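In the design runs reported in the main text, the only information available to the sequence generator was the tokenized backbone. The following block is the verbatim input for one such run; it is reproduced so that readers can re-run the procedure and compare outputs position by position.
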């Protein structure tokens, strides 16, 4: 494989594997000064296949060092998604000397001769900061012969009740279990009948408390990813619920479906465990792809990457607590140079061009859109194949249109416009993180987010902002080369 081909779409500030296939982030945890990222990994091919847990570590969640494979398939099956926790109090008995990491994952045993697949939950532990792992001899620790889709355990310590809680995807629902030692699990409750997005199997749940900005209050937030049902024009997508959790039952505050992201490429997102309370942040990353076309995207030698890490909080908007996401603050230390964009009035049907001098960058723009009906931001490469972001101030919508001009077939969903609603303020803030093959847009201070893969043949060289109807003012702007 030509070096050039391998690196053509290689992200600079997003995790991607040196070679071969990845999907979901797994076992994300902070321990002894390192952020750990494990991931669904097929070490033999650039398409999905027998799953292992790959492993990478980072000091800032932006620059990752890929390490050896952490977990290999065994007689109980392949290693599907799951989580990791630090067992601070040796509840498991695995750590008589000092605390260490425990991975809680799904063993997936494919059915043979027409028999159905078997999914069970298992443990592995590490005494050397995740470098090597021992599988627990009592595996599996949780089984249910009645459930075929029984996977993706996310475990956290529940301090008030002094026990571990697991949230598990179980068909088109999630179930909660509790444990004192991670080995013996008790069923607590089921959530998902008649609520949420029910078009396909539920996967990769996560449950955590988030602060409500501007208050001393907190609320529980439940993430649930929903697989791809080919009958619908949606692809795989993640939604979330905000509500209360009493250690046994989760009760949502709302009935409406709330998408985590309005782009097509944010799936299986879960949060880091064990970020110290002195830091206090809740941060997640997701797989930046979509099951509809993940196996076909045009990278060479490797396939799959993660979103930029995002800090989460809740904000009360019109009486509802809604999710807010922002790129982690570590992005600031990562900036190699910062360019200020001058205040500028762009008259109706005129354009303003901004040079882009890098491959990965953060672009932050605040507009006054009082007198603007529609305007576009076109990221243009040397071959003039733009990615166009269109803002319609009248309908309060942002549309992102990507182009895919490769000869290879890719499912139609890839080329369909991605749409997101924005707030009604006269000031509009758009924050982009642009990398070699992705664009992440945070609008309205992170209340609306759109994540999309892109595959330009050349890096983008300019950003052309055109006011299609009405006068548009750039109030402030900044580009940081990352
Ligand atoms: C989600 C998922 C999980 C499963 C894993 C297999 O993308 O389907 O439910 O554990 O991928 O790779």
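Verbatim output:
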């Amino acid at each position: 494989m030509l070096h050039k081909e391998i690196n053509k779409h290689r992200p600079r500030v997003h995790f991607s594997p040196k070679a071969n296939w990845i999907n979901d982030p797994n076992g994300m945890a902070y321990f002894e000064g390192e952020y750990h990222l494990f991931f669904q990994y097929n070490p033999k091919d650039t398409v999905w296949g027998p799953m292992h847990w790959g492993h990478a570590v980072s000091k800032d969640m932006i620059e990752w060092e890929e390490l050896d494979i952490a977990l290999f398939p065994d007689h109980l099956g392949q290693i599907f998604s799951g989580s990791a926790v630090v067992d601070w109090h040796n509840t498991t008995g695995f750590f008589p000397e000092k605390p260490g990491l425990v991975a809680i994952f799904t063993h997936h045993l494919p059915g043979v001769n027409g028999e159905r697949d078997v999914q069970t939950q298992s443990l592995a532990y590490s005494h050397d900061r995740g470098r090597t792992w021992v599988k627990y001899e009592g595996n599996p620790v949780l089984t249910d012969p009645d459930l075929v889709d029984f996977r993706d355990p996310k475990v956290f310590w529940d301090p008030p009740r002094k026990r571990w809680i697991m949230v598990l995807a179980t068909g088109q629902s999630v179930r909660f279990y509790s444990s004192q030692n991670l080995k013996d699990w008790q069923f607590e409750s089921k959530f998902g009948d008649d609520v949420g997005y029910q078009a396909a199997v539920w996967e990769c749940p996560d449950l955590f408390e988030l602060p409500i900005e501007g208050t001393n209050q907190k609320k529980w937030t439940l993430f649930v990813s929903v697989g791809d049902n080919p009958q619908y024009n949606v692809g795989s997508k993640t939604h979330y619920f905000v509500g209360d959790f009493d250690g046994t039952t989760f009760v949502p505050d709302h009935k409406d479906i709330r998408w985590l992201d309005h782009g097509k490429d944010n799936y299986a997102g879960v949060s880091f465990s064990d970020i110290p309370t002195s830091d206090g942040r809740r941060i997640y990353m997701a797989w930046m792809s979509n099951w509809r076309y993940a196996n076909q995207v045009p990278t060479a030698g490797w396939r799959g990457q993660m979103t930029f890490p995002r800090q989460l909080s809740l904000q009360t908007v019109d009486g509802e607590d809604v999710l807010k996401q922002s790129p982690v603050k570590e992005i600031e230390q990562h900036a190699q140079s910062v360019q200020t964009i001058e205040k500028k009035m762009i008259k109706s049907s005129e354009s303003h061009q901004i040079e882009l001098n890098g491959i990965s960058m953060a672009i932050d723009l605040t507009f006054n859109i009082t007198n603007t009906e529609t305007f576009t931001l076109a990221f243009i490469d040397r071959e003039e194949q733009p990615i166009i972001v269109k803002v319609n101030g009248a309908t309060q919508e942002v549309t992102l249109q990507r182009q895919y001009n490769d000869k290879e077939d890719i499912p139609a969903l890839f080329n369909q416009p991605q749409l997101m609603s924005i707030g009604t303020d006269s000031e509009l803030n758009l924050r982009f993180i642009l990398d070699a093959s992705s664009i992440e847009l945070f609008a309205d201070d992170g209340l609306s987010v759109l994540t999309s893969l892109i595959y330009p043949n050349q890096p983008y060289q300019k950003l052309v902002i055109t006011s299609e109807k009405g006068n548009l003012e750039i109030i402030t702007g900044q580009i940081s080369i990352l």
